Amino acid sequence: MKVRLAGIVNESVNDGPGLRIVLFFQGCDHHCPGCHNPQTWSFSGGAEYEIDSLLDHLCDHPLIRGITLSGGDPFYQPEAAARIAANFHERGKDVWAYTGFVWNDLRNSSGSAWQELLENIDVLVDGPFLQEQRDLKIPFRGSANQRIIRVPESLQQNQIVLWNPRPQ
Ligand code: SF4
User: Fold this and answer.
1) Distance from the alpha carbon of residue 98 to the mean position of ligand 1, in angstroms
2) 153 C-alpha vs ligand 1 centroid, how far in Å?
3) Ligand 1: centre distance to CA 71 (Å)
4) 2-157 is classed CATH 2.40.10.270
5) Domain ranges of the chain
6) What pLDDT, on the 0 to 100 scale, is given for residue 168?
7) By the number of CB atoms within 10 A of the CB, which of 10, 50, 93, 132 ranks highest?
8) For residue 99, which atom of ligand 1 is closest to its CA?
9) What is the Cα–Cα distance from 69 to 97, expressed in whole angstroms?
10) Which atom of ligand 1 has the smallest separation from the CA of 71?
11) Residue of the nearest CA to atom 6 in ligand 1?
12) 28 in ligand 1 pocket by Cβ < 6 Å?
């Protein structure tokens, strides 16, 4: 199985808590005005990687707390994103993901690939970037409409449970 990526950052402290690997998925149809990564919109841009080979080469030192699936939007490549996420859980790392879709649309979709991806994510930052709600002071989000959602708890309780940085 292959994944199309716009880029890889091996050590980031900006895309979730702790030191993280960030994969920027290539392809996004949300086209949010003011998007900081418009080069990720094309579904034919970036580069394709064999997932098994990619996973073998991603940094795996003990200080890495987890992986963040960003973009672009990983929900346009849900099977590939779920496989990568599952591998990082096997390594004992946590998984964050960013999407321009909103929680209810993902949760209520009949698509099994989206459900499988959700089940492999710990924390999801949802919703499009809205320029009029842009806020540089809020951590890990671009605009105030976006929510940081604890995915396992939200799936279990069938309602959105927000992530709070303190218990982490
Ligand atoms: S979802 Fe993210 S990558 Fe896609 S257009 Fe919106 S801000 Fe850009």
Assistant:
1) 9
2) 26
3) 7
4) no
5) 2-157
6) 46
7) 93
8) 1
9) 4
10) 3
11) 32
12) yes
Mean predicted confidence (pLDDT) in 148-166: 93
Side chain identity at residue 135, one-letter code: D
Residue having the nearest C-alpha atom to atom 1 of ligand 1: 100
Place of tokens 């290539």: 26
State whether the beta carbon of 32 lies less than 6 angstroms from ligand 1.
yes
Return the residue whose CA atom lies nearest to atom 8 of ligand 1: 35
3-state SS of the chain? CEEEEEEEEEEECCCCCCEEEEEEECCCCCCCCCCCCHHHCCCCCCEEEEHHHHHHHCCCCCCEEEEEEECCCHHHCHHHHHHHHHHHHHCCCEEEEECCCCHHHHHHCCCHHHHHHHHCCCEEEECCCCHHHECCCCCCCCECCCEEEEHHHHHHHCCCCECCCCCC
The pair of structure tokens assigned to 21 is 């690997």
Q: pLDDT tens digit string along 79-126?
A: 999 999 999 999 999 999 999 999 999 999 988 999 999 999 999 999
Question: Is the distance from the beta carbon of residue 73 to the nearest atom of ligand 1 less than 6 Å?
Answer: yes
Span 41-83, pLDDT tens digits = 999 999 999 999 999 999 778 999 999 999 999 999 999 999 9
